[in-house]
């Protein structure tokens, strides 16, 4: 990627535009908002040192008033989010399908701003709750802003926008006591599920590991709805959008997820921030599934139904470009909080379908910004500004920023030569696709939307055994938190329409009855693309905790750490105290965390370094033993050098496993006795050791381990 002279990513047009609004105060004098220099900022103006504060203290009044008004309403959904800047490049011209300028030329970099979010929780809730994740991308194209406002799951809970307030009321904290925060595990959510069976498919996604992403950088994104691409000749294709993360799709385990919520509620935002700061720029490929207009009715599902996906095996995903995030925000509020997305922000060549959920969204997003940002000029906020020039007859409104001179603010006019004038299609004017529509006004839903179970079955059937197990446990957990027995039973009955064995396992765990008229998922079609197990794997940016004490053997450790770093793994030393440990070779090694301040749930892998004294120190520390035990229980790769294997043994690892004891005693080569456990006590085996550890890290988790 191109860098500027200082080695920073080159500025995009959007960066330059934002720069004009950026105020750097380092080295400056303090002023009021009127630019008046302030001489005192610690003592308000009083009548005598012990006297009352005087109203004429304008600096105090201004400072306090601004503070009193610092909050704006949080988003009604997706309140907790985190954003970053980057750019998008198309691989090859999409001209045959769309006239969208930003999809024509592989040489063009379109600036983007992306905001990831959870849906149900408040602004201050934890990152790692079980939830759908928002994946909203604003492309600052030369033809105006294009927003692809998607989620990390390809379908949705409801088919018609009119049900959105009901669904959200059911999943949000209950209105009488505002409990529980950022959880679907409560009566009203599951009551909704039992009463509104169109949600079944999405509920399966929400109970799957997709709802527990390891990182924003490791989740897919989906436009969900069917959109249209329209080319220069006016020909349309139906299109579904996908974002495929280069690092693959990975999740945490449920126990870990809950613990991270306490140990580091900012886990996902910290992860994204750190990755960008360290130059590990996250990347996603943009994929499209395309259908000709005449293929609209070729499937056993309705392509307008947002509770249905197009199996990739039936309609392949074509990768058409790549998005790279390479710059963190300068100010969270100004950028991430004030960014306003809208599925109706489109450019020529991209159009809508009649999906009734999408149609409703086209109303909701402007409306919500009016409330949240306080008026109709939210497009003027720096983060929302288009890089294409804006000219129209809109004037006034709360906090208007542009100064539009002249008396003429209407169309048509003669006094300003009829400008600003509508543009022809050739000049880039947006023309709605001339779809033929006819029908009676009805409040009804098409029969083609009535199948609520087939694709839930497809999804369930396409999962690996481990993913199925996690999903089963998720249902068991969530429904165990439901107090009303009838609500629990109805949920089990609905699940029985997808797979009766699954429903029976859930029923057994929650004191409900197995459904009598269930179906079996076994014979249904599978879509391997739906399983996370079949996605890319990479050791890059994974975090390894390296457990050390004083006297640690540094020679072999250094070579292992070098190998890890070369593979892109980030290693951080954990010890009893912050500062340094002194190695057997008298080197000072910097300790990043203590056992009190971190936890194995915040790492992907654990390496116990060798050295008699070092391991003895670790063995005296119960938290070190717990660290290893917990990483093992969460199926994480564990490696030990030399005497380090004793800490594993003290944590019950290896010794408890059938072949483990042997592995620990005198392995010359890494032990294959247990999946994801790499042990070496011979220095000459170091290269093989590093390779085996990196391979174990690449695998993400070692599910066959019996814990
Ligand atoms: Fe949204 N949604 N939504 N949604 N949505 C909002 O807009 C809404 C839906 C999504 O980071 C709100 O600015 C309705 C599907 C994301 O700022 C609001 C319906 C998908 C974000 C709204 C849906 C999404 C939002 C709240 C059903 C995936 C966060 C604040 C008809 C394709 C954007 C705001 C950000 C935010 C309404 C369903 C994605 C109220 C009415 C389906 C990623 O306008």
Automatic annotation (TrEMBL):
Basic and acidic residues compositional bias, start-end: 1-18
Keyword Heme: yes
EC number: 1.11.1.6
Catalytic class of the enzyme: oxidoreductase
Catalase core domain segment(s): 31-419
Keyword flag Oxidoreductase: yes
Location of the region described as Disordered in the Swiss-Prot/TrEMBL record: 1-45
Skewed-composition ranges (Polar residues): 23-36
InterPro entries xrefs: Catalase, Catalase_AS, Catalase_clade2, Catalase_clade2_helical, Catalase_core, Catalase_haem_BS, Catalase_immune_responsive, Catalase_large_C
Molecular function via GO: catalase activity
Chemical reaction(s) catalysed: 2 H2O2 = O2 + 2 H2O
SMART domains in alphabetical order: Catalase
Cofactor: heme
One Pfam family of this chain: Catalase_C
Keywords, comma-separated and alphabetical: Heme, Hydrogen peroxide, Iron, Metal-binding, Oxidoreductase, Peroxidase
Functional summary from the UniProt entry: Decomposes hydrogen peroxide into water and oxygen; serves to protect cells from the toxic effects of hydrogen peroxide.
Family (UniProt): Belongs to the catalase family. HPII subfamily.
Name of the protein described by the UniProt record: Catalase
